[in-house]
From TrEMBL:
Pathway this chain belongs to: Purine metabolism; IMP biosynthesis via de novo pathway; 5-amino-1-(5-phospho-D-ribosyl)imidazole-4-carboxylate from 5-amino-1-(5-phospho-D-ribosyl)imidazole (N5-CAIR route): step 1/2
Annotated catalysed reactions: 5-amino-1-(5-phospho-beta-D-ribosyl)imidazole + hydrogencarbonate + ATP = 5-carboxyamino-1-(5-phospho-D-ribosyl)imidazole + ADP + phosphate + 2 H(+)
EC number(s) from the headed UniProt entry: 6.3.4.18
InterPro entries: ATP-grasp, ATP-grasp_carboxylate-amine, ATP_grasp_subdomain_1, PreATP-grasp_dom_sf, PurK, PurK_C, PurT/PurK_preATP-grasp, Rudment_hybrid_motif
Record domain ATP-grasp: where: 98-284
Name of the encoding gene: purK
UniProt-listed Pfam families: ATP-grasp, PurK_C, RS_preATP-grasp-like
Name of protein: N5-carboxyaminoimidazole ribonucleotide synthase
Organism encoding this protein: endosymbiont of Bathymodiolus septemdierum str. Myojin knoll
Oligomeric form and interacting partners: Homodimer.
Length: 370
């Protein structure tokens, strides 16, 4: 089957790598022939790239929740698009996302939409402080966010939004950040990966541990229940990710992504079927693959800003290097390293070895103890 991808970044790249063994072909709509996916299939660039992709593809998917929903509606009249416009419409706006959580009785932080500084003042009085101000659309890796500790910061916080519609969310006192990745096919079959633990630094994901340790089976069941209601409500086909806070009072939903996700990259070597392969299986009508981990523990370390000495990683027998063919730039995701291990001690030892490969990550990795 010919699979079209709106976008040509590293997610499209890894989708193609996982899909070629299943005898699929890939096409991408992008901005240049220098993007990570450009050598992995047919590359369509220029003003007519989307139309060319539609002519090429039997089915189309998208890399980002920031994809123009009107484009998806338009091309959906000619070729099937998964996950579909409803998932995209909801997840690209934080207010609609939170409203869906409320509708489905999924706990989330108190929130209020604000469109002016006065709105923000009123919201602060209602929700209290600390609280986080975010743009309702776009924004990723910590961008478009301002943590407000005291009322004297309100003006500065609003100015940082540049007049964009925003959402104020009450601060959640959490123990750790988790995420759950699942996949649903066209026949309403569901598969779930284990909850994973995520460590962020400056708003960017740096480290994922899979499965998250010391998770009560009931917590996994609760997360899967939330996920199933979301998948079914949106009639979502493909991979869906939900980021969660683990608190003393249970799980609190943070946000969703209607796509394969950075916190699921560990599954390439760490699960029987990766998130990428399962997304392709789902949207092409193939049976979903088993999501059971292949090792007791896995980790994913993001390569941020600078690549470093590749040989250090290649000399580690349990490490797997994935580079995205991107130019080095501050805070840019250039690749990731997957590690598999049979024990907590072994995994932690491997993570520490990567300090030589990622000198700027030393503080983050040193402070993570399993």
């Amino acid at each position: 089957m010919k699979v079209g991808v709106l976008g040509a970044g590293q997610l499209g790249r890894m989708l193609a790598i996982s899909g070629y063994p299943l005898d699929h072909q890939f096409g991408f709509s992008g901005n240049s022939n220098e993007e990570p996916s450009s050598l992995l299939g047919h590359m369509f660039i220029g003003d007519d790239s989307v139309n060319s992709l539609v002519d090429f593809a039997d089915v189309i998917t998208y890399e980002s929740e920031n994809t123009d929903v009107e484009i998806v509606k338009k091309i959906g009249k000619k070729v099937t698009v998964y996950p579909g416009e409803k998932s995209l419409f909801i997840t690209q706006h934080r207010g609609r996302e939170k409203a869906l959580f409320d509708q489905l009785n999924i706990p989330c932080a108190p929130y209020q939409i604000v469109s002016s500084e006065q709105d923000l003042k009123n919201a602060v009085n209602t929700i209290g402080l600390p609280a986080i101000l975010k743009t309702t659309t776009e924004g990723y890796d910590g961008k478009g966010q301002f943590l407000i500790h005291e009322k004297s910061q309100i003006t500065k916080a609003w100015e940082s939004m540049n007049g964009a519609e925003s959402i104020l969310e009450g601060f959640v006192n959490f123990k750790r950040e988790l995420s759950l990745i699942a996949v649903r096919d066209t026949n309403n079959n569901h598969k779930y990966y284990p909850l994973v633990e995520n460590t962020h630094h400056d708003g960017i994901l740096r480290l994922t541990i899979a499965p998250a340790q010391a998770i009560d089976p009931e917590v996994q069941k609760t997360a899967e229940h939330y996920m199933q209601t979301l998948l079914d409500e949106m009639n979502h086909v493909g991979v869906l990710t939900i980021e969660l806070f683990e608190t003393n009072n249970g799980l609190v939903a943070n946000e969703m992504a209607p796509r394969v996700h950075n916190s699921g990259h560990w599954s390439i070597e760490g699960a029987n079927t990766s998130q990428f392969e399962n997304h392709i299986r789902a949207i092409t009508g193939q049976p979903l693959g088993d999501t059971t981990p292949t090792h007791p523990l896995s980790a994913m370390v993001n390569i941020i800003g600078k690549i470093g000495n590749i040989d250090t990683v290649l000399n580690m027998p349990n490490a797997h290097l994935h580079l995205y063919d991107k130019v080095e730039r501050a805070n840019r995701k250039l690749g990731h390293i997957n590690i598999t291990a049979n024990s907590e001690q072994g995994l932690n030892s491997s993570i520490q070895q990567l300090q030589a490969f990622l000198p700027n990550e030393a503080t983050v990795l040193t402070h993570h103890n399993l």
